[in-house]
Specification:
Blueprint (H helix, E strand, L loop, with lengths): L3 E2 L33 E8 L5 H17 L3 E8 L4 H10 L7 E5 L3 H6 L7 H6 L8 H5 L2 E2 L2 E2 L2 E6 L1 E6 H7 L7 H14 L13 H10 L5 E3 L5 E3 L4 H11 L9 H4 L4 H9 L5 E5 L3 H8 L3 E4 L12 E2 L1 E7 L6 H11 L2 H11 L6 H10 L4 H9 L1 E2 L6 H7 L2 H10 L5 H16 L2
């Protein structure tokens, strides 16, 4: 039996897919597929910098699936995250070249659904024996207009990393509100000028969003005609943006060094000993553990009110089925096997991917205390970006990072920067 094969040398990529690089080429809806019970089942999965643990789990699932389905041969192709746009565009335009099952980021789903190529899995998820265990807020990230187009395979949640040794030395405790977070970061910078109080950046959109949401703001809203319009001009949204950009000041994280920081660079600054705090994901554990073992801890990112938790962006990857598949039932069954509690657990053990099934999350957080702040953050409530193909374009154009950088560098005030961002967003939304 075959296990997996790589069709060509691919650029390796790691990490959770959080935003699309470009929108897929549009095509007419894919033709109707079939439901053959034997033959090859083509699967596209994202390659990783260290693929071995993921491949081992997938290969075990393939062996189990093929043993239960005589005459079925699962063929996995590993595709580079950076090249996914062209790869998927080709499949959308030529259904014959499309896989039966594919992994993709949840921020890409709206763009992919617009092509008509993905199968509606709403009924399959509802009838799946483990479907009721999917966390509702995570399942929402797989929906477009109320229909489910992917099984959430894993999620990525951010929380507050902090240096326990620095906090102990300065007699500090983890902040309980955004105001306390700002004050704590300022105190650390004053006491230790060689450290950023917290490392965050002007290009770190997914660290900013919890501040926006914690103040009651929204990125955009959808009207009864399903048209999206930016909501950044509300007082709540501006308060959230201000709270975040207040961290990128000379007395916390100087704009000269921090205005251009991305999420990866912000976490690297913390892991490299240059910052006392950062906003990082469960998926950043290995990067931090390697250099700061025993010197850091994680708590939920605090919200506006003392004791509250700021809503986190629920990133992650889905497993979807192409509508043109000739083996619909097999494709759905294999998707459900990979997304089952058994293999979500194996993916966590091998890759550190946070499961989307509540029972698995609870079990793992009990045995691994590191996960507790991330699970608690999910329980407190997560949020998502606008479920529209336009979001991929907005993200690729760096509309929000541009506004943040204009604010923190003093190039524009909040009102002016927001007005410019709103105009560009609404143009992209088509409103």
């Amino acid at each position: 039996m075959r296990r997996s094969r790589v069709l060509a040398a691919l650029t390796l990529a790691a990490g959770i897919v959080l935003a699309a690089g470009c929108s897929p080429t549009q095509s007419a809806p894919a033709g109707q597929g079939g439901d053959e019970k034997t033959g090859p089942l083509r699967v596209w999965l994202f390659d990783e910098a260290n693929r071995a643990p993921k491949e081992a789990a997938v290969n075990e699932a393939i062996a189990e699936f093929e043993a239960a389905h005589a005459g079925v041969d699962v063929d996995v192709q590993w595709i580079a995250v950076e090249g996914r746009a062209d790869k998927f565009a080709g499949a959308f335009n030529d259904p014959a070249s499309a896989p039966d099952v594919a992994e993709f980021g949840n921020t890409d789903v709206a763009s992919y659904v617009e092509t008509g190529a993905l199968a509606d899995l709403t009924g399959d998820i509802q009838s799946w024996k483990e479907g009721a265990d999917l966390l509702p807020t995570v399942l929402e990230t797989a929906k477009v207009d109320g229909k489910v187009y992917g099984l959430p395979w894993f999620t990525g949640i951010r929380a507050l990393y902090y240096r326990t040794d620095v906090f102990t030395e300065l007699g500090l405790t983890p902040p309980k509100s955004i105001t306390e977070l700002t004050e704590t970061a300022r105190r650390i910078r004053a006491a230790k000028p060689d450290l950023y109080g917290i490392s965050v950046g002007g290009q770190y959109t997914y660290a900013m969003l919890p501040f926006l949401w914690a103040h009651g703001g929204e990125i955009a809203r959808q009207d009864d005609q399903k048209r999206w319009t930016s909501s950044l001009t509300t007082a709540e949204a501006k308060a959230g943006l201000t709270a975040y950009t207040n961290l990128i000041k000379d007395d916390i994280c100087p704009p000269a060094q921090c205005a251009n920081l991305t999420g990866t660079q912000s976490v690297q600054a913390f892991a490299g000993g240059k910052a006392a705090m950062t906003v990082g994901g469960d998926f950043n554990r290995k990067a931090v553990e390697g250099s700061l073992a025993g010197k850091y801890a994680v708590v939920p990112l605090p919200g506006k009110d003392p004791g509250s938790v700021a809503p986190a962006f629920a990133g992650g990857n889905l497993l979807g089925v192409f509508g043109a598949t000739k083996r619909k039932s097999l494709a759905v069954e294999f998707t459900q096997l990979l997304g089952s509690a058994k293999y979500q657990g194996k993916m966590y053990q091998g890759m550190g991917n946070l499961p989307t099934l509540g029972s698995v999350q609870q079990q793992l957080s009990t045995s691994d205390p590191f996960l507790k702040p991330f699970v608690d953050t999910i329980k407190a409530g997560t949020k998502f970006v606008p479920s529209t193909p336009a979001w991929s374009k907005i993200d690729a154009q760096k509309i929000l990072p541009t506004a943040l950088q204009q604010i923190v560098t003093g190039e524009q005030n909040v009102d002016t920067a927001v007005a410019g961002a709103v105009d560009r967003m609404n143009n992209t939304f088509g409103t």
